[in-house]
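R.M. (postdoc): so does anyone remember the format we settled on? I'll just put the structure tokens first.
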């Protein structure tokens, strides 16, 4: 099976670029890129996002060789936004603390803070008054989700598309339309 490094090299070769030209397009020193291609360095998620953005291949394919083509349309967070999130983290040297367990806890805590915006709310007026707080907590959840995807070396767009497909088989439109039941209850 092809390695990540081999797939990246294939992207370079398919675009008829020298090692130096490809490294320059990624804003990497040639020596660093050379070490990646030789398998001496593991490419970061942000580098994979950059390759995906510039050369129109999916991050998921770079990681695991599945689904090379990018999905049609704007179906995910932009590589630039993901890059900003990861740069914010890296500028503070926080990646060392971002293991899947702690990121899952952080996602859950931020989701609980979002839920807190609705605590003791009995009217739409009260909810509207807390809209800014809701937006901020939702942003925190999304930021931690991006960091979790990075820790798992997972492409967010591919994850969401795969899950939507899986849910589509569980929740057929003709059974689930306008119905809040769980899929196991719909089949009855």
């Amino acid at each position: 099976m092809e390695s990540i490094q081999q797939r990246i090299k294939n992207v370079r070769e398919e675009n008829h670029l020298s090692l130096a030209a490809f490294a320059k397009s990624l804003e990497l020193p040639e020596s660093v890129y050379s070490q990646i291609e030789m398998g001496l360095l593991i490419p970061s998620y942000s580098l994979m996002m950059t390759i995906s953005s510039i050369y129109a291949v999916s991050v998921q394919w770079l990681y695991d060789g599945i689904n090379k083509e990018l999905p049609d349309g704007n179906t995910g967070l932009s590589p630039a936004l993901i890059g900003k999130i990861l740069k914010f983290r890296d500028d503070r040297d926080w990646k060392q603390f971002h293991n899947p367990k702690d990121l899952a806890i952080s996602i859950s805590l931020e989701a609980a803070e979002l839920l807190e915006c609705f605590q003791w709310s009995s009217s739409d007026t009260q909810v509207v008054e807390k809209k800014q707080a809701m937006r901020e907590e939702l942003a925190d959840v999304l930021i931690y989700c991006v960091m979790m995807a990075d820790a798992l070396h997972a492409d967010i767009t591919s994850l969401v598309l795969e899950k939507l497909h899986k849910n589509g088989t569980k929740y057929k439109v003709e059974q689930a339309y306008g119905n809040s039941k769980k899929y196991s209850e719909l089949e009855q």
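R.M.: ...and that's the designed sequence above, right after the tokens. Also worth knowing: The CA atoms of residues 23 and 30 lie 5 Å apart. The domain at 75-173 is CATH 1.10.287.1080 (Helix Hairpins).
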